[in-house]
Design goal:
By secondary structure, this protein is mainly β. The chain is built from 3 helices and 16 strands. The chain has a single domain (35-269), classed as Jelly Rolls (Sandwich). A hairpin with a 2-residue loop joins strand 13 and strand 14. The chain is globular and about 60 Å long.
């Protein structure tokens, strides 16, 4: 009932312009006439749904080397999940310069083929690297495949959308087929990121519009297409790292910063009516 009410209220607010024209346009531009909603998290509860999500643990890769379970970094208010990044004020207990939060559905929820839509916004900052992405549930990285629905760096007015696999990293030296694209966004505003994914292609989208397509190429072998298995979600707020710091060092004066997620929704194609 809460999620239905949230959807109805959001639609009514759009009609009267309370949310602003940009947010309404982003919601209305997503054509769902051929899709059936099969799973969603609208973040209507006051705490993280433990049946779906686990907080990301710290590790050596750049995307999670400042992850922390500090309770200040994650909260849910008014139907929105907040993932924060802050300057570490407890360096005596933890040497990391920053503390960040992320959540993953690994081992709890994964899906194979369909349409995913994630509505989010973030506060731009030098060194900020929010990301919405998916990993294959079988094998280890990069053989399991990675689908990056959105990665944002610093103060860019664009996002990156990319696939990674054993093929793109170890075999393909010509970027054929092209593994990555960029798309313009309304920076610091709500945007909807996602993809339409089937056995032959991944079509990335921003605000319902196709932005980049990665196809299956059978003659290149199975390592080119590990995207034939269930994938799980990772929603991560990161500060710093080799990629994001390539355009300049992180500025601690810009923090706290973070990412807000309004919803995660998964659809399957509607069955044709007789």
């Amino acid at each position: 009932m809460e999620t239905k009410l949230k959807s109805v209220v959001l639609s009514l607010m759009c009609l009267v312009g309370i949310l602003g024209s940009a947010a309404c346009a982003a919601q209305q531009s997503v054509d769902l006439s051929k899709w059936e909603l099969v799973w969603r998290d609208e973040f209507t509860k006051n705490e993280l749904d433990a049946k779906t999500w686990t907080r990301c643990k710290r590790g050596t890769p750049d995307w999670k080397n400042t992850m922390s379970d500090d309770p200040r970094l994650l909260k849910i208010t008014n139907g929105v999940l907040h993932l924060r990044g802050i300057v570490n004020d407890k360096k005596d207990d933890d040497p990391a310069p920053y503390l960040t939060a992320g959540v993953t559905s690994r081992g709890k929820f994964a899906y194979k083929y369909g349409k995913v839509q994630i509505r989010a916004r973030f506060k731009s900052a030098q060194g900020a690297w929010p990301a919405l992405w998916m990993l294959g549930a079988e094998k280890g990285w990069p053989a399991n495949g990675e689908i990056d629905l959105m990665e944002h760096l610093n103060f860019d007015h664009k996002v990156y959308q990319t696939v990674h696999s054993e093929y793109t990293i170890k075999i393909d030296k010509t970027n054929t087929p092209k593994k990555s694209g960029t798309a313009p966004i309304k920076r610091d505003d709500w945007n909807t990121y996602g993809c339409e994914w089937d056995a032959d292609r991944i079509v990335f989208t921003v605000n319902g519009k196709p932005t980049h397509t990665y196809p299956r190429v059978p003659e290149k072998g199975e390592k080119q297409w590990p995207f034939n298995q269930p994938f799980y979600f990772i929603l991560s707020m990161q500060i710093g790292g080799g990629w994001v710091n390539g355009s300049g060092p992180t500025n601690p004066d810009h923090y706290p910063a973070g990412m807000e997620i309004d919803y995660v929704r998964v659809y399957k194609p509607k069955k044709p009516t007789k």
